[in-house]
Write a structure and sequence with these properties.
Blueprint (H helix, E strand, L loop, with lengths): L2 H6 L10 E3 L4 E4 L4 E6 L2 E2 L7 E2 L2 H6 L1
Antiparallel strand pairs: 1-2, 2-3, 3-4, 3-5
């Protein structure tokens, strides 16, 4: 994931900064408790495609 791209990407719902999880290939919005997948190096920033974090995952951030 390009560091410059990570600096400008925000959550499409609440505009909060995102956390990059390299191993999972996801961008995490802590505020909305959503994980946006990264497919072939391209973030999929669609709310309908986002995965909801479990309470345990959200707490671990």
């Amino acid at each position: 994931m390009d560091a410059k791209l990570l600096d400008i990407l925000v959550c499409p719902l609440c505009k909060s900064p995102l956390i990059y999880r390299k191993a999972e290939q996801e961008l995490i919005c802590r505020a909305d408790r959503l994980a946006f997948k990264i497919a072939d190096g391209i973030p999929v920033m669609l709310a309908d495609e986002a995965r909801k974090l479990t309470p345990e995952e959200a707490e671990a951030l």
